[in-house]
Task: structure prediction
Amino acid sequence: MQEQQERIIVSWGEEEAGPLVCFFAGIHGNEPAGVLALERVKIELSQLEIPFRGRLMGLRGNLEGLRQQMRYVAVDLNRLWSKEQIARVMALDPALRNVEERELLQLLTHVEEMESSGHSPRYYVDLHTTSASGGAFSVVSRVASHRALAEHLPVPIIFGLSSALAHTTNRFFEERGMVGIAFEAGQHDDPASVDGHEAAVWMMLVAAGCVDQADVPDWNRHVATLQEAGGGLSHFQQVAYRHAIEDSDEYRMIPGFHNFQTVSQGQPMGFDLHGEVFSPADGRILMPLYQPQGHDGFFIIQDLDEPPV
Ligand SMILES: [Zn+2]
Result:
């Protein structure tokens, strides 16, 4: 069970009873912050003997990607989670499956085990970081229960990303009727991103009823960490634009943009083979691309008064 040993960061609590919270960390292999945060929480749970109900699971996403510190080896593991993609991968000759297709099927085995357990409620949180600096936020579908889970984190909720990005874990949670969100904590290698993930892990454990808030070490510090990382933005944000790119575009972002930075319509954002690329709208920049792998140059988000229905 080599795979299990490497896959499972933390497995804590009761096998069948009570709530369950499962975290995916490192679905992108160049995003180790979630793994480090879950290791910290595991140490605190055991050393401080914190009263615990139900189950905490923390799973490494892309084992091979994490080993190689690459976003992905063959294909983006966070673009394989739709019904169609899963069916396609399952139908493939096992010998022909690429690295991420194998990782996907292994993760699905773990998820199916959890889904057939007696735990209730069951929450799933996919932990990520960005290549640009700053800015923590959650990403949800339009499903009300997903938004309700995200409301437990004091960071902006971004709507429209899960539909702009095809076949992510958000789509999987929606299609399977599972309650799940994605959470972005900041820049890949920033120590503050580990703090942000740790704060989110504790908050999700409290939201699920696994841990009492009063028993969480440094609760107020965790709240302050996320409030600061949330940048004081209004709580609901909508994607107004996605700058989709292909490798052949040779897109390069102008250096120095950070998440949530205000930008204006017509402002130069980057360059590709055809010349300069401009922002098509006023708003704030999200996830400007500062890594070699990826197909989203940047996003523009705008304030929403109310969540979409
Ligand atoms: Zn990611």
Summary: The chain has a mean pLDDT of 95. The chain has two domains: 2-229, 239-304.
